[in-house]
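Support request from a user on the community tier.

User writes: "When I paste my structure tokens into the form, the page sometimes reloads and wipes my input. The last time it worked, I copied everything first. Here is what I submitted, just in case something in the input itself triggers the reload:"
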């Protein structure tokens, strides 16, 4: 089958950073689905893995996580879907990726594709909505009926765009997002943020200037290390900060006097660790699918780069690494 992968770490400016090749057909595990991939979307993790993964000598590693497609086969123990079902999912970081014609994926991390969306529109959602949902409810442990504030640092990115919508759709939280450009500010407001503040300066000062109360929940989605001291000043007493980005070392002692907490979200934990509650990703994707079809949540797709090819995929990687994207970038299948 056709696939695109990497033979080793290279910058996106190198035409050899990704290669097209004929890959072996997926071998299904008992609870796997075999999916004909119809569309994929890109996330920062795609670029990070491309820039760091070193396959074994002579091997090519298929990248890609977000996907939407049609079930064309099922494992012996699979029961959640049948052949012909349209699905969407974010896959696993330790298995062959979605940049291929076909992919094997555990049904417990797969949801029914929203019927109201195209495959590309649906592919834009899974990784970000899983991350947003798990961060908000499993890590920050926000209550759906709380009269509290949620601060989202980096509201116009993929996860921020999903988190604004999910928080507005299923909680009573006041949602304050951060953005530094007029177009990203408007994007956050259009998605439902109650207010948007500028993160180009100290975030605690921006909150105060806007008349916002101390947030009980802070979702730090980007540049956590740079913002952390301001976030520690901003967070409410006994509040909690959750992060998803990569960094080394934080002065967490700044949270002690407030008895505030710090937590990580990593959406690949459940499938990689095969946790007993792994099926929660299927359940939350199913709920999000219903919210989309009800018109409460919308796709965050902003650009479709066309058919899956090395050239188009590298262009998507370059755009992501520019740091200027809003929403999500998708590609159709081969």
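"...and here is what came back when it finally went through:"
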């Amino acid at each position: 089958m056709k696939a695109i992968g990497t033979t080793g770490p290279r910058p996106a400016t190198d035409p050899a950073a990704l290669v097209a090749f004929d890959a072996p057909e997926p071998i299904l595990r008992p609870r796997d689905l075999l999916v004909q991939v119809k569309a994929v979307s890109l996330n920062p993790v795609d670029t990070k893995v491309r820039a760091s993964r070193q396959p074994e000598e002579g091997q090519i590693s298929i990248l890609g996580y977000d996907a939407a497609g049609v079930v064309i086969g099922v494992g012996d123990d699979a029961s959640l879907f049948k052949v012909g079902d349209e699905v969407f999912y974010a896959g696993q970081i330790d298995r062959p990726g979605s940049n291929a014609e076909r992919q094997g994926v555990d049904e417990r991390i797969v949801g029914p594709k929203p019927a109201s969306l195209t495959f590309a529109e649906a592919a834009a959602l899974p990784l970000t909505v899983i991350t947003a949902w798990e961060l908000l409810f499993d890590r920050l442990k926000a209550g759906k009926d709380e009269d509290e504030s949620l601060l989202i640092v980096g509201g116009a990115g993929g996860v921020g765009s999903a988190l604004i919508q999910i928080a507005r759709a299923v909680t009573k939280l006041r949602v304050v997002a951060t953005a530094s450009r007029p177009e990203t500010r408007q994007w956050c407001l259009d998605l439902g943020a109650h207010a948007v503040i500028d993160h180009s300066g100290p975030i605690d000062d921006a909150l105060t200037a806007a008349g916002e109360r101390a947030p009980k929940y802070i979702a730090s989605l980007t540049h956590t290390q740079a913002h952390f001291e301001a976030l520690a000043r901003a967070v409410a007493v006994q509040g909690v900060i959750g992060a998803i980005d990569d960094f080394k070392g934080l002065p967490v002692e700044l949270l002690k006097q407030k008895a505030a907490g710090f937590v990580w979200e990593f959406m690949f934990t459940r499938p990689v660790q095969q946790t007993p509650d792994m099926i929660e990703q299927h359940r939350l994707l199913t709920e999000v699918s219903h919210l989309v079809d009800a018109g409460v949540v919308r796709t965050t797709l902003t650009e479709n780069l066309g058919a899956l090819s090395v050239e188009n995929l590298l262009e998507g990687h370059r755009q992501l690494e520019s740091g200027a994207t809003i929403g999500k970038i998708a590609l159709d299948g081969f």
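Agent notes: The reload is a front-end session timeout and is unrelated to the input. The chain has two domains: 2-125+278-332, 128-264. The two ends are 10 Å apart (CA to CA). Escalated to web team.
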